[in-house]
Design brief:
Layout: E1 3-9, H1 13-25, E2 28-34, H2 39-47, E3 52-54, H3 57-61, E4 66-69, H4 73-83, E5 92-95, H5 101-112, E6 117-119, E7 121-123, E8 144-147, H6 155-167, E9 171-174, H7 177-202, H8 217-223, H9 230-239, H10 241-264, H11 267-287
Parallel strand pairs: 1-2, 1-4, 2-3, 4-5, 5-6, 8-9
Antiparallel strand pairs: 7-8
Helix pairs in contact: 4-5, 7-10
């Protein structure tokens, strides 16, 4: 697997980690990066994530074989429109977005106008830290990367994108965009909403003054992902709001079941609740190569 030129649109945690992985594994003759702010150029140089970074989108995309969109979801459509004049025929465009149905629907036809091919991707890897300074070349090793082809997806392009993710260490899974969005609404998006709500509630200044001092490792572990990018998670929640609403409804119903047990003091059923949760998580952990950090 080798490309002449790979362009990364948005060189932050994910884009920077892709760049580092590509350069370490020599998967491209040249790796270019597009950033919005001139101040970010030096950050990219220090991290060594790309061969060159630029604030000129057309220059970054020009003559690229593979373009990877690593921007917030709300920016993807406009960036693709801007880069179309520089996108060469036969090029492949993919992304790292956490929501797929709307992204595939909006971007596939746009990319096709340039005679290029779009393949939706979602690497299930990440961290609460942001920016290229937090990038790691091994971020995608053993992480699942979901590809979301549709009927119009070019099969040769799909195969190349699959080979690319495998080449940087990912385990590839193919799902429809709709199935992907339904599943991640529970396993990825719901946990973030819970963590953010818990952090906001417990650390509210209106709580007693010693509250924060009594927040130890359990609280820290449970709320870690609440430190993720607010812009990114706003876009994810809005883009997947129908599925996320259903997941929230089901989760709230489960919380209310536990609340009723608590009010009744039903020790036997409560013990079963905790036993079931422990068993399910332990079984999941036993089957994981490494739990996703997203």
């Amino acid at each position: 697997m080798h490309f002449r030129k790979i362009t990364i649109i948005g060189v932050g945690l994910l884009g920077g980690s892709i760049g580092l992985a590509v350069r370490r594994r020599k998967l491209a003759r040249q790796t270019a990066g597009f950033v919005r702010r001139r101040a970010s150029l030096k950050d990219c140089e220090r991290a060594g994530a790309v061969d060159f970074a630029t604030t000129d989108l057309l220059a970054a995309v020009w003559d690229a074989d593979l373009v990877i969109l690593c921007t917030p979801l709300s920016q993807m459509r406009s960036r693709v429109r801007e880069m179309l004049p520089a996108l060469k025929r036969g090029a492949i465009v993919t992304d790292v977005g956490s929501v797929k149905a709307s992204v595939v629907r909006e971007l596939e036809s746009l990319v096709a106008k340039a005679g290029a091919h779009f393949v939706g991707s979602h690497p299930m890897a990440g961290a609460e830290k942001t920016g290229v300074g937090a990038a790691r070349a091994d971020l995608f090793v053993d992480a699942v990367c979901v590809l979301t082809p549709v009927k119009k997806t070019n099969q040769a392009a799909l195969k190349k994108v699959e080979q690319f993710w495998r080449a940087i260490g990912s385990r590839v899974l193919r799902l429809t965009p709709e199935m992907h969005d339904s599943l991640v609404s529970r396993s990825s998006h719901l946990p973030h909403i819970i963590a953010a709500t818990l952090a906001s509630h417990v650390l509210n200044p209106a709580q007693p003054k010693h509250q924060a001092a009594l927040c130890a490792n359990g609280f820290r572990d449970t709320t870690r992902i609440a430190s993720g990018s607010p812009e990114m998670w706003r876009d994810i929640a809005l883009a997947n709001r129908k599925n996320l609403t259903k997941s929230l409804d089901a989760f709230i119903a489960d919380l209310q079941k536990f609340q009723r047990l608590l009010k009744k003091g039903d020790a036997k059923t409560m013990a079963k609740f905790f036993e079931t949760a422990k068993q399910r998580r332990d079984n999941w952990c036993a089957g994981c190569v490494s739990p996703s950090s997203e």
